[in-house]
Amino acid sequence: MPDRGQGPSGPRVRVGRPSRRARTLLMTLGVLAVLAMAFVMFAGFWTDWLWYRSVEYSSVFTTTLWTKIGLFAVFGLLMGLAVGFNIWLAYRLRPPLSAMSLEQQSLDRYRMGLAPFRKWVLLAVTALIALIAGASASGQWRTWLMWVNGVKFGQTDPQFGLDVSFFAFDLPWYRFLLAFGFAAAVLSLIAAALTHYLYGGLRVTSPGARATAAATGHLSVLLGLFVALKAVAYWLDRYGLAVKSSDFKATGNWTGLRYVDANAYLPAKTILFCIAIICALLFFATLWRRTWQLPVIGFGLMVLSAVLIGGLYPAIVQKFQVQPNEQAKEAQYIQKNIDATRKAYAIDGTKPENYSGKSTVKAKEKLREDADTAASYRVLDPNIVSPTFQQLEQKRKYYQFPTTLDVDRYKGKDTVVGLRELNIKGIPKRNWINDHFTYTHGYGAIMASGTTTDANGSPVFTESGLPTTGFLPTYQQRIYYGEKTDQYSIVGGPQKELDYEENGEKTTSYKEKSGVSLSSTFNRAAYAVAFSEPQILYSGAIGDGSRILYNRTPKDRVEAVAPWLTIDGDAYPAVVGGRIQWIVDAYTTTNGYPYASRTTLGDTTADSLTVGNQQRTVVAQQNQVNYIRNSVKATVDAYDGTVKLYEWDTQDPVLKTWMKAFPGTVQPKSAIKGDLLEHLRYPQDMFKVQRELLTRYHVTDPAQFYSGSDAWQVPDDPTNKDGNAVPPYYLSMKMPGDTAQRFSLTTTFTPNGRPNLGAFMAVDADATSKEYGRMRLLRVTEDVPGPAQVQSKLNGLPSVATFVRDMKGADSDIQYGNLLTVPLDGGFLYVEPVYAQGRNALYPLLKKVAVSYVDADQPDGDTTKDTTVFEDNLTKALNAVFGVEAPTAPTTPPGTTKPPGTTQPPVSNDAALQQAIADAQKAYDAGESALQKGDWTAYGKAQEDLQAALERAAAAGAKLKAPGSGG
Q1: Mean pLDDT of 85-110
Q2: pLDDT, tens digit, for every residue of 135-144?
Q3: Could you tell me the sign of the dihedral formed by the alpha carbons of 99, 104, 109, 110, in that order?
Q4: pTM for this one?
């Protein structure tokens, strides 16, 4: 019982200790609180591990984790030991007696107060510094893995003769070690100086010597180490000149050595290295001389040398040797920069071909005939028709299509593709069950011919409906993983999912092994914490078989399993092997390629389609790069989320390095199946980076490069009011000299500061082609109107003005589609679809097609040779632009390609030829009829009959033209 006594003013009460039960309760609550906090921190780690294990890339998680832990432990320990040892040493070297002064008397109070806790303070300080250093070092895991696994490039830099791998893999790691050494030296110096001051080894106001001999020796060694590290820095700076970026007024952004670097900075760094070594030795010598005189003189000379040799001398060389004759002095270094840049960006095989811009064909009939086979003109613009797909094929409010659709090839035809993905905001009744259990997936791939529309201007769908039907064989239509699917779903448990609605609701239950199992209470608790959703822990909708799906966008999944890759901004779907597969292009990059100029990926890959559209934005691990390869093709299964990485560039040393670091994560190129290969294409972001570099680096002569007289620019999109760069376009077309169309990625250039057409470039984008990746660059030697001039001329046509006025009067908006550019018989053919959308209409319709044939022999100002027309459809526009009607015999129907070598059969009285022409016309009509009805079996049969008839017609025509045939 507590003592209760009588105090002066009443009873006195002694408050006793808490009872055993209360103490037990408090301790229990404390332990539970600590465990709860630990579990919250552990939940994120555990759920990440479960996710990587579910996608079968647990080695990526463990390799990354252990690398970070190893770097944290090693460098944290080294930093802690370095600082702690120097504090301990400074304490051991303290003088036995402190000088009698006011300064030391005031410090005595701190020494006495610190004495009982000295070991704990030392431990706390070193632990804090170790934690900070370790955390910083763990962020260098990529640098470490690239250094320890680095593969030789087999290429040497032109200045030092070292393999490029030294600059790409070794030098960054050495720079980190140097920076760590500097930090350790500086922190140790500060800690030791403070300790010496606290214990009397250093004095500021006390009489006598300012430092004891022991303190002088200790601090001088630390200063010597700092100066020795500076010597190492000077030596590494020599190699750093090969990857140094600078502003060269003649060429703009510059990487590598210039004349002043090679002839002033490089020898200066070598001299400063030697001076720093001598200065460091002078500091070490104070251990015996016990005086600061020589080290201070040496350090002063080093600083003076750095100013004179490292700063003033290069400035004199630049001013009096380089500037008076800069072009000649810099020529060899410009050449090195050109060669390295072209090799680093894989454009070294691209050389401009002169293309006059003058038509080589004068016969209008021949031009009109060639125009039919020059390209499969894509009048269905995937950047405009998403609302049309949405309105015609959405079917339910909880479905959606991406803002920008994709272009792919099916049966040799350019096809516009969009997936009907889940729209969580369109769910009729929003609640947790509906959002995450009932509405879990989209349904079906919608496709339309890229080269034709119906009579109303709507897409001609080749795969449509819910479930979809069309020309595709049966495939898994459910879409659990997509570009618009960014919320988590819980599937496979007792709660049924809505599959789709057709004459009532159809339900389903997910049967794949994708996602993470929630059968374990521990897993449910971890996800409840990680997602801040407590219902995951106790909801009755979760039971045996329940699995949680998250990280569901294709780019996110690829980035997660390969955090060392840069991801292309445009993931696109393809139906392959009965499944919808997202195809994601991925790049390996470095910014350590000597002499190669750097580019900023975020800026270089931006165009009128990516601005404000995160769906099309590149995911870059390293934004500033000077080397890039499309080294990996990745796929993500839209149904089960399986991620596969395929080696694409088998020669890329950066990819080989990462494959050594993460063995087994990338499958060999031979694992790519044929049906998948048919849908692989040349990536847009890689092409945009290359075209930006080619605006300057198509020039290989140093003098011309220096003058900038032949510099180009990527033109602004003439159909976009915001003035952003024109995007590259996928298009099946023929380049000069080709006998058949190739699926290509194309772009235009204009001379710097001028609107006329400077060049046209196309790359073979078909992965099945033997010439995949071959770039052809046509330099336009004559004055030919560029895209902006063609657009301006189009806008000035009276027919366009009338159309716009009528549409505005009907309260309709006008939208200009992609302005396609196609080389044709020496000139260029521009084709642009024009859409209109009424105020009450929910989607745009193709209403007009503008065509312009530009030819250097037809001046833009010559109104008698006006070559820009504005018609109701492509056929009429082509007829009008050349002034002749299409041949009476059918050309290849829109969206198809003529067999190589076939031509339009001539009109003749030959019975065989006439019969072939009649059969071709009949087959064409049958195909058009089947296309309108959506009868794909009949359409396929008609196409086969058409091809056979055209081949017979071509054979008959050739026979008529043969010598002695009488034709």
Answers
A1: 73
A2: 999 999 999 9
A3: negative
A4: 0.85
What's the token pair of residue 456? 């109303």
Tens of pLDDT along 286-313?
A: 877 777 777 788 888 888 888 888 889 9
What is the dihedral sign for C-alpha 884, 890, 892, 893?
positive
| 305: its two tokens | 């040398």
Q: Among positive and negative, which fits the CA dihedral 345, 349, 355, 361?
A: negative
Find where tokens 């529309």 sit: 453
Give the CA distances from residue 656 to residues 588, 650, 651, in Å, rounded to whole numbers and listed in that order.
Answer: 10, 8, 8
C-alpha distance across the termini of the chain, in Å? 131
Strands (E), 300-380: 352-355
Q: Which of 314-328, 541-555, 692-706 has the lowest mean pLDDT?
A: 314-328
Q: Binning pLDDT at 50, 70 and 90, where does residue 904 land?
A: very low
Strands 775-780 and 352-355, sheet pairing: parallel
- Full DSSP string of 91-145: HHT--SS--SSHHHHHHHHHHHHHGGGHHHHHHHHHHHHHHHHHHHHHTTHHHHH
Using a pLDDT cut of 90, give the percent of the chain over it.
54
| Contact assessment for residue 549 and residue 513, using Cβ atoms and an 8 Å cutoff | no
- Ordered by start, the domain boundaries in the chain are 38-210, 375-480+485-552, 553-680, 889-967
SS3 of residue 490 by DSSP = strand
Residues whose CB falls within 8 Å of the CB of residue 631, separated by 6 or more in sequence, listed in order: 586, 587, 588, 647, 648, 649, 652, 654, 655
Q: Tell me, what DSSP letter sits at residue 402? A: -
> CA 11: distance to chain centroid?
80
Structure tokens at 858: 């037809």
> How many of the other CB atoms lie within 10 Å of CB of 94?
18
Scanning 168-292, the segments in alpha helix (DSSP H) are 171-198, 213-240, 259-260, 266-284, 286-289
* CA dist., res. 89 & res. 83, Å (int): 10
pLDDT score of 12: 52
Of 912, 830, 35, 29, residue with least CA distance to 379:
830
Residue 207 pLDDT: 57
Task: Kindly indicate the confidence band of residue 774, based on its pLDDT and cuts at 50, 70 and 90.
Answer: very high
